[in-house]
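Each field is listed here:
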Amino acid sequence: MTKHDTIVEDVDLDRFRSPIRVLARCFQRSRDNWKRKYMELKSELKRCQVRMHDMAESRQQWREKAEATERELAALQRELQELQRQVNCSGSESEKKGLSLVLAVLAP
């Protein structure tokens, strides 16, 4: 007696109207559909996890690039303010004129 025979004997077969071969095919199809659905969901989950990881990495790179650009902008603004201060404090007219030209080129 095999394991399957034991299982079949434990089940009250009188309550089923369909033949066992039909029930077995139906149960097997149901199991196969469940497995297929599970495998599809598992692969979709994996795809989403990889995509989420890639997006997080990309976001981090963009954040670092934006922060570096902000630091560079702040440094350039400080340099511009220093040059403007030098123009305002400078004594000679020719120096003021030369620095004004430089500032005009640098100013946005």
Observations:
- The chain has one domain: 18-106.
- The mean pLDDT is 83.
- The chain is about 85% helix and 0% strand.
- Helices lie at 3-10, 20-89, 93-106.
